[in-house]
Amino acid sequence: xxxxxxxxxxxxxxxxxxxxxxxxxxxxxxxxxxxxxxxxxxxxxxxxxxxxxxxxxxxxxxxxxxxxxxxxxxxxxxxxxxxxxxxxxxxxxxxxxxxxxxxxxxxxxxxxxxxxxxxxxxxxxxxxxxxxxxxxxxxxxxxxxxxxxxxxxxxxxxxxxxxxxxxxxxxxxxxxxxxxxxxxxxxxxxxxxxxxxxxxxxxxxxxxxxxxxxxxxxxxxxxxxxxxxxxxxxxxxxxxxxxxxxxxxxxxxxxxxxxxxxxxxxxxxxxxxxxxxxxxxxxxxx
Length: 286
Known about the structure:
mainly beta, nine-stranded antiparallel beta sheet, 1 helix
C-alpha cells in the first residue's frame, strides 16, 4: 500500500445557516477551500435549543448532493415534491439536488442535544440537471466493522475490505464513487484505512485527538485534514480515543461556480438557476 500523509489542514470556523442554526464549517468556509469533489462540510453540535430550534426552513439547491448524518437528536426533511423523512441517531439522508429541489430540515425536539454533519458533494456537468432524488438510510442498515486492536468503522458509502472480507455500505452507484466512513478508535489504538488511489481523501476529527500518517502528524480537533495521494491512511488515537470521519471521492476536474445553494460550471448557469428559482421553474416533478 502507498500511505497517505496529512498535506493541509482547514480549521473549522463558527458559522450559522438556515434560520440561524449555529455550526462549525471547515471545507467551504471560503470559496477556495474545497477538495474536489467535496464542496463543504458542516458540523452542528449543541445542547442549547436556541442554537438549533429555528432549523433550516424552505430553501433551494441545484447541481450537487447533500449528505446529512445524524449522531444525536431528530431532524425532519420535507420537500415540495411531497417527500418526507425523519432522521434519528445514526441515520443518514443522501439527497441529489440535480436540476433543483426546495426543501426544509427542521428539528423534531424542543430540548436536548442536536449533533451531526452535512456534507456537500459536487455533481459532474452531465448530471447537474438530472431529476432530484433522495434516500433515507436508517442506522440499522449501516454496517459496522470491528477493527483489530479495538475500535470500529461504520461504512455509510463505498466498500471497505479487511482481511479479504469486503463490507459494502448502503450507498453506492454514484459517479464520484464516494467513501464515507465513521471511524471510532479507543485510546492508543490505530487503524490502516484503505482508500481508492484515484480519490481525493480527507479526515475530520469530531471527538478526541488523532495523528495521521506514518509521520504521525497531529490533526486538530474539529479540523479537516486533506491527505496526499495514496492507497491507505494510518490513523492513531490519542489518550482519550478518537472519533473521525474518513471521506474520499473521485475528483471531477471541472470548473466550479457557486452562488449560495447553487453549484454549476459557469456564471451563465448560475444566472439561469436564479432565474428558474424566481420564476418557479427550479423543480420539475416529472
